[in-house]
Every structure is written in structure tokens, then in C-alpha cells.
Amino acid sequence: MSFVLQFPKTTKNKKMENQIGSPVESHKTDVLPSSASAYLDPHYWDDRFSQEEHYEWFKDYTHFRHLILDYINPTSSVLEVGCGNSQLCEGLHGDGITQLTCTDLSPVAVKKMKQRLISKGYQDIRVLEADMLDLPFANECFDVVIEKGTMDVLFVDSGDPWNPRVETVDKVMAMLRQIHRVLKPNGIFISITFGQPHFRRPFFGKSEFTWSMEWRTFGDGFHYFFYVLKKGHRKSEGDESTERIKMPSISPYHDELDSEDYIFRTNIDDV
């Protein structure tokens, strides 16, 4: 049994929001795309961020704080790629992790996040405009890199999840190569996503990468995946040990999912 991420039209998404009683006030439906491909358009994100003050993909920091603090300490230098208008960096800062750099491709998101952080007194968090496929940082300069939902965007037009389009593969690999490059030896990449292990492992497990891979889950009715990849800890082929999990029960209409996470709704197929 497997599930594939699909993207319903905006009208259907509105209907689902009404069915589950999601708080429309916290996420206005006029920022939702008319099609999945819009998520790959930088202009969509500029327009969206100009209207929207805050949105958290795949739950806010409080839902996975117990997981992330196992891998980050106050001395860690942390890079968040694709920060958007998330408040993840503020949550980390509140736990004493202050060497934070946030990046996003959208100049609108970067400008608004800078203004928000300054207004709240966060003077030491760096926010930069940057392309995650070509990060403007030196080699081996971060202890931790985090992405939350950013990689999922690259898969919205990927076609068959078992055999994604070449264009999708190229972009995902470019992102992973950049993250691997900027991580220090023994550095950690944390990926928070809907992507199940059998869809992510072909990318994370490429022989060019030296990291090990393990995963955990969080969430109640619908589980999100929390991947941890440790640079320089890859084991020899055939001896690779990854943390196994019981596959989560899937409830596409469970109120555990926040409003726009329904765009990543599930289509259950027998495999």
C-alpha cells in the first residue's frame, strides 16, 4: 500500500477546508494556486508572500521540537533553506540556537522576514535571498541544514513518483549536492516532508553522498516524515542501517492536517 501526492484544484481545496473546519482566517484561500505547477513559478511566491504574513507547512515548530533538539545544540550553525514566511527560526532561537541563517528565492519573502525579525528584536538572525540549487556559501560552513516542505515543491510536477521526470531529478539532485557541499564534516541535514522513505531513499542514498540516513515520524492522524542525514557516516553497501518505522495510517480528511497541507492530499494505490 502506498500513497502518491496529488494537487486538487483550488475549489476542491476550499471544499475540504470547509468540511474539516480548518481556520480559513489563518490562511486565506486567495493565495492558493490554481494548479500544482504554480508552485514552481517564482512570481507565484512573490505574489503570495506580498499578501500572506505567515504560514507553516507540515506543522509548526512545537510539533517536532522534541525531534529536532536531539540534533541541534546552542553552538550549532544552522541554515534553513526555503524559509518563506515560517517562524521556525524564531522557535529555534527561543531554544538558544542563535547562529541562524535563513534563505529564500523570493526577495519579497526575504524583505518581509527581515522586517518581522527586526520588529521582534531578533537582530542576530541572518536572512538572505538565495537559490537553494546554487547556494552562495563556502564549502563546509554549516553544522546543520534544515528544509521543511521546500523539497516537496520540486516534486509537484514530477509525474510518476516511482519514475519522476528528468527535470525533477536534476533539480532535486542539485539541491542535495548544494546541501551536502555546505555541511561541515559530521554535519546534519534535516528534511521535514510528506515524502515516504521509498520515494526519498533513491535520492538521499546516491553513492556520491557520504551521509547516513534515518527517519522518524510526527503527527497523530496523518504522519509527516523527519529525515536525519549525517555527513561522513555512510556505511558500506549492504551494511546500511536505517531506522525503520511502522508505516502510518492514512486519513486524508483527518483534522490533523492544516489547511493548505490538503493540497498534498493522498491518493491511495495498491502496489
Topology:
Elements: E1 2-6, H1 10-20, H2 42-51, H3 61-68, E2 77-81, H4 88-94, E3 99-104, H5 107-119, E4 126-129, E5 142-148, H6 150-154, H7 166-182, E6 183-193, H8 197-204, E7 212-218, E8 224-230, E9 265-269
Parallel strand pairs: 2-3, 2-5, 3-4, 5-6
Antiparallel strand pairs: 1-9, 6-8, 7-8
Helix pairs in contact: 2-5
Care to describe what's here?
The protein is α/β, with parallel strands linked by helices and 271 residues long. It has a single domain, classed as Rossmann fold, CATH 3.40.50.150. It contains eight helices and nine strands. The strands form two sheets. Strands 4-3-2-5-6-8-7 form a seven-stranded mixed beta sheet, with helices on both faces. A two-stranded antiparallel ribbon has the order 1-9. Helix 4 links the parallel strand 2 (77-81) and strand 3 (99-104). The termini are close together. Residues 1-27, 244-259 and 261-271 have low confidence and may be disordered.
Describe the structure concisely for a colleague.
The protein is of the alpha/beta class and 271 residues long. The chain has helices at residues 10-20, 42-51, 61-68, 88-94, 107-119, 150-154, 166-182, 197-204; strands at 2-6, 77-81, 99-104, 126-129, 142-148, 183-193, 212-218, 224-230, 265-269.
* CATH homologous superfamily caption: Vaccinia Virus protein VP39
- Just name the CATH architecture: 3-Layer(aba) Sandwich
Number of strands: 9
Give the overall pLDDT as a whole number: 79
Task: State the helicity in percent bands.
Answer: 25-40%
Unreliable residue stretches = 1-27, 244-259, 261-271
Q: What order do the helices and strands follow?
A: EHHHEHEHEEHHEHEEE
Global morphology: globular
**Termini distance?**
6 Å
Which fold name is given in CATH as the topology?
A: Rossmann fold
Q: How would you classify the helix and strand content by structural class?
A: alpha/beta
CATH class: Alpha Beta
List the domain count as a whole number.
1
Task: Give the count of helical stretches.
Answer: 8
Task: Give the oligomeric state.
Answer: single chain
Order of strands, main sheet, comes to 4-3-2-5-6-8-7
Could you give a short account of the major beta sheet?
A: 7 strands, mixed
Strand content: 15-25%
What is the radius of gyration computed over CA atoms, rounded to a whole number of angstroms?
18 Å
